[in-house]
Amino acid sequence: MDINNKIIEVKESKIRIAQAKTYIDINELSLLCGYSVSTLRRSIYEGKLESTKRGKYCKVLFTHNQVNRFLNGSIVNEK
């Protein structure tokens, strides 16, 4: 198996895992939608992407509904 096929296999595996979770983190969202982490963080700051913060260190998480609204162009948290 060449390296490109292995990379594709690993990405597909990560996508399947992320889709099965209730919450996904910003790195998983980046992998799923193709936007960079910095673009996603900017979208959160601008109010275009709603996020949920969980845990002791306030890890940024997203529900599938939040992701779908963002990808479908709905602006969330208008200022």
List the helices and strands and how they pair.
Blueprint lengths: L2 H18 L2 E3 H8 L3 H9 L6 E3 L4 E5 H8 L8
Describe this structure in words.
The protein is α+β, with helices and mostly antiparallel strands and about 80 residues long. It is about 55% helix and about 15% strand. It contains 4 helices and 3 strands; from the N terminus they run H-E-H-H-E-E-H. It has helices at about 5-20, 25-35, 35-45, 65-70, and strands at about 25, 50-55, 60-65. It has a 3-stranded antiparallel sheet with strand order 1-3-2. Helix 1 packs across helix 2 (about 25-35). The longest helix has 18 residues, at about 5-20.
- Describe the strand arrangement of the main beta sheet, using strand numbers: 1-3-2
Q: What is the terminal separation in angstroms?
A: 50 Å
Helix count from the secondary structure assignment: 4
- Most strands sheet: 3 strands, antiparallel
How large is the share of residues in beta strands? 5-15%
Q: Tell how many strands the DSSP assignment holds.
A: 3
Overall morphology: globular
Radius of gyration: 14 Å
Catalogue the unreliable spans.
75-79
How much is the average pLDDT?
A: 80
Q: Please write the string of helix (H) and strand (E) elements.
A: HEHHEEH
- Broad structural category: alpha+beta
The amount of helix comes to: 40-55%
